Amino acid sequence: MDKAEALFLLKCHAFVHEDLEHEKMQHGFLGMLRPFRGELDERNFHELMNIIEVLAKEFEKPQVNREILACFWSICQLARAWALYPDGMLQRNGLLSKEQVELMEEWLDMISYAVMILLEGDGQLDEALWGYRNY
Question: Could you report the per-residue pLDDT of 120-132, keeping only the tens digit for each?
Fold first, then answer.
């Protein structure tokens, strides 16, 4: 995956790409939650972690691409609001199992940790992906 493909896929996972009918928009990380079809697709999580790895150098720049940060922030915030909060739409409506809630929490923790570490700079890709590599 190159940088251009990573940015395209990131926008799809964050549901901000212009092509709303694209398969990745419909079934990407946020797309799989709304509407929820009963399953969390782990391939989306792995693809997001791969995107983080491909875009790692972007996080070290003095001025980080705002679009990249907005996408990751949206993914983490909206997934937490929809899936993890007890009054969020998925838990409130009894659509997620306890195991699915725990899995989503684990994924979001790894995503947000990786982004946080990379934003600190100093080329800490190994540290950023440590939890994921042990997943």
Answer: 988 899 999 999 9
